[in-house]
Every structure is written in C-alpha cells, then in structure tokens.
Design brief:
The protein has 314 residues and is mainly beta. The chain has helices at 70-73, 91-95, 270-276, 306-313; strands at residues 2-6, 9-15, 19-24, 30-35, 79-84, 110-114, 117-124, 129-138, 141-150, 156-166, 177-180, 186-190, 196-203, 210-216, 222-229, 235-242, 255-262, 280-282, 287-298.
Length: 314
C-alpha cells in the first residue's frame, strides 16, 4: 500500500503486475481501476476540481451548489459506497446535516496494509455503523469484502448500494457498450447520443446466484466488470447524466453513467425506502457482510456472458 495523491486528493494505491487500484482517504471512494498495459481508468473523475471533503463549506464553496448533494459532490470519485442511505435525505435530515447517499462517502477512512491489498474502515456516527472494507488483488481482479457493524442496541433497516460511476474517456456517447444479468437480460446498451438525464431500476436474474455487469469501450478495448452475489445485492440501478444538468457543479458539461448495485431498486428518502420494503437489515450489535469483485482487462469485443468474461481474466 502506497500513500499518494490522485487529482490533488490524498489517496492510497495498491497494485500488482497487471492492475492498479487507487482509493481516496476522504470518502473512501475507489477512484481508479486500471489495467497497466492499457492505462485507461473507466471510473468517473468529475470535470470540476476535486477537493478534500473536510475542507468544504456551503459558504466558502458555492461552486459545488447549495443543497444536500454539494458536500458529496465536492470530493466524489468513481465508486462511492452509499450507506445507510441511497438517495436524498429527508428535509429534516438535510437540515441536520446528513448528505445525499449517507455518511460513508464524505468521512475520512482509516487505512492499513493487508496481504496483497489494503484494509479500510470508517465509523458513521449519525448512523451508528462501522464499515470495514478489504481489497485484495488477484491477477486482473480486485476482490472486495465489506462488513457493516451495527454499533447500536436497535435492529434497523439500512440502504447499501455500490455506486459504480463511469466517465470519459472510457465513456463515449453512443459508443460504450454495457451488458448485465438483469431480468430480462440487459444486452448491448449504449450511452445516449443526446443530452439527457435519467434512471432505471433492474432486478437481477434469478437464474444464477451470481449477478454481474460489464462495460466495454470499443475505442480503447478496456473492459470493466463487477460480479456479486444476487442475494446480497438484488438490484441494479442505471443512472445516466449526459450534459443535461445545468446547475452547479454540473454546469451542462458532465457525462457519466452509474451502474449501481445494491439492496434497493431506486434512490429515495429513508421513509419511502421502508414503505417500499426493499432494504438491508442490520441486527443490533451485529455484523453483516458482502463480497464481490471488480476486474479490468483488455478485450477485442464485449463478452457474451459471465463465463466469457471470466475466461478473459484467467
């Protein structure tokens, strides 16, 4: 594990002979997953300047907007963990200082080296949760194990979504291709050629215990995929922003696509999540865990299915 800077942000980096993974200290965002022979990072780096989230304030930094999303947007990168909220806070939560997607993406994380990787942890004081993540590199794969510990004496529902967001140069209008094991299967979808912004929710196919998505750039031939257990994360949300949001900090110049797998189908306030009945469960003084992997390779074409994808990684 190496301490480094990534786009002027404090970060830690791990690598092997094939791939490199970089994680920001503040927010714990997985900011970079790169195959060294290719050099393309599929993950989103926003077009606006990134800053240490602890230095942000609404009064001093109006360029990031002025709402519950602004704190997160000041330092967001790539793959963001949404816990224990997926979506906006309620009006009262926002007034009390809770950001969009919960605390995990805005707080400092603690890091330590681990065998072939790193261990990271963060305590969410408002949610009374402790989250620990280990990332271990094996060939083209980054194996990720997350544990959420409920520090309170109350059982509680939680949102838990892996908000994987892709951006240029990997992401190109009408070019970059996507496949996923949704029900029905999502195959050969492209980023929109027109200015647009939207979100759709997809249930993962019950035909397999494992769920997955792949994204492939015909220009660079970079291929990124995530594989997880369907029972852990039964939903995939697809969010696309294509130069449509005119307000700060988006300013009509942002192109990005989120492939967001989690326990909830849509980003929404806590009360609506509970009324919908789609959430995770954190028993009092107990731990719940999930394991998944991200992998990156160079491929001549989009793999047809998970078997073909994993064959490329061998």
């Amino acid at each position: 594990m190496i301490e480094t800077l990534f786009h002027h942000r404090r970060a830690v980096r791990i690598e092997n002979d094939l791939i490199r993974v970089t994680v920001t200290v503040e927010g714990g965002h997985i900011a970079e997953i790169v195959e060294k022979s290719n050099g393309v990072n599929p993950l989103w780096v926003p077009p606006w300047p990134s800053m240490e989230i602890s230095e942000w304030s609404a009064e001093k930094h109006p360029e990031y907007g002025n709402d519950a999303e602004s704190r997160l947007l000041s330092g967001i990168m790539g793959h963001n963990l949404c816990l224990d909220l997926f979506g906006p806070p309620s009006e009262t939560e926002a007034a009390a200082g809770l950001p969009v997607h919960g605390e995990a993406g805005v707080l400092p994380w603690q890091f330590a080296p681990a065998d072939k990787g790193l261990r990271a942890s963060c305590i969410l004081p408002a949610a009374q949760l402790r989250v620990e993540r280990t990332i271990t590199l094996e060939g083209h794969r980054a194996l990720i194990h997350e544990t959420v510990e409920n520090l309170s004496i109350c059982d509680r529902p939680i949102a838990w979504t892996e908000h994987v967001t892709l951006g240029p140069p990997f992401l190109e209008r009408g070019v970059t291709r996507f496949r996923a094991s949704t029900d029905p299967r999502l195959a050969d979808t492209y980023t929109s050629e027109a200015s647009s912004s939207g979100y759709s929710a997809h249930a993962m196919s019950p035909e397999s215990e494992r769920a997955w998505f792949c994204a492939w750039s015909p220009s660079s031939r970079a291929l990124l995929g995530y594989v997880w257990m369907r029972n852990d994360f039964p939903w995939l949300g697809i969010w696309e922003e294509n130069h449509a949001r005119a307000h700060a900090p988006w300013n009509g110049r942002t192109m990005t696509r989120g492939m967001e797998f989690g326990v909830s189908p849509v980003p929404e306030p806590r009360r609506k999540m509970i009324e919908r009945g789609s959430y995770g469960w954190a028993p009092a003084k107990s731990k719940v865990s999930a394991t998944y992997y991200a992998a990156i390779a160079t491929a001549p074409e989009m793999p047809e299915d998970l078997t073909a994808f994993e064959r490329l990684l061998a």
